[in-house]
Specification:
The protein is of the alpha+beta class. It is built from eight helices and ten strands.
Length: 274
């Protein structure tokens, strides 16, 4: 089991303050996927729709020879009807050469979420620049947002990364689920929130937990677990939210902006054994 904390890399936290190199990576505000109490409703729908089979992968959650990721991007695509399979395949067939790992999941009938982790700030900047050119090739499959952007994207520094290799070994032949939970923290409460969230997961059988800062008061928690284990421990995650609710700004009626789904995992081949 490994725990990596990046709080000493304070200069990296300025990353999210810089302006994006392209309007294609603008943030779109106000998106919310249900309440935290029903975070897995669409996950059950995906299983019935056989998306599990498409999302399954035998790739490791963390490659044995991979460097520590320091930055991450989280990108949401809205796909035109009839193009979901093609768009999903375009994203997952090969990841960015700058990336350590890429996690991709379908979060609704028309939406895909893609998470990419890189080891250096320069890698993130390069990835965004090459990503704009790649978007030109798939634009015909995408629904643009009201601001003209082809994606709803954010990126930032990884503050905390925890991985339980024993849990991964036990669940290696099971379907994996990734949850992406966005928090908006009240002014003056960031330190208290980070002290609460930047700890090894107490949820049984969770494989990876990563905390990313995407704005001064906004954070993402990424969690990977087995499909069955995720559903079984949903109540425990909601109970944990009760303990930090006083620190959070709400998204409408919800304490978080959350989504989850069966995850496709791509590891950069140069970090895999052999």
């Amino acid at each position: 089991m490994t725990v990596d904390t990046y709080a000493d890399l304070g200069f990296n936290l300025l990353y999210w303050k810089r302006r994006s190199a392209s309007k294609s990576f603008s943030k779109t505000e106000g998106y919310s996927v249900g309440k935290d109490e029903t975070i897995d409703n669409d996950l059950k729908m995906k299983e019935e729709a056989s998306i599990v089979e498409r999302g399954q992968t035998l790739s490791p959650i963390v490659a044995a020879n991979a460097p520590k990721p320091v930055f991450a991007s989280i990108v949401r695509f809205v796909v035109k009807p009839g193009h979901m399979s093609s768009m999903f395949d375009e994203i997952t067939k090969t990841g960015s050469e700058e990336a350590v790992v890429q996690y991709t999941l379908q979060i609704s009938d028309s939406e895909i979420l893609n998470v990419t982790m890189v080891p250096e700030l320069e890698d993130m900047i390069t990835k965004e620049e090459t990503g704009v050119n790649w978007l030109d090739t798939v634009e015909h499959m995408l629904v643009k947002f009201s601001n003209g952007s082809r994606t709803d994207a954010c990126s930032g520094a990884i503050l905390f990364d925890w991985h339980n290799d024993q849990n991964e070994l036990q669940l290696q032949n099971k379907t994996k689920v990734l949850s992406a939970v966005k928090y908006r923290v009240k002014e003056g409460c960031v330190d208290e929130f980070l002290n609460a969230v930047m700890t090894p997961s107490e949820i049984p059988m969770k494989i990876r937990k990563t905390i990313i800062q995407t704005d001064e008061q906004e954070f993402y928690e990424l969690g990977i677990a087995g499909l069955e284990e995720k559903i079984e421990t949903e109540d425990e995650e909601v109970n944990w939210l009760d303990t930090v609710e006083h620190l959070l700004e709400f998204f409408g009626d919800s304490r978080t902006d959350a989504c989850s789904g069966v995850v496709n995992i791509w590891n950069n081949p140069k970090f895999l054994d052999g």
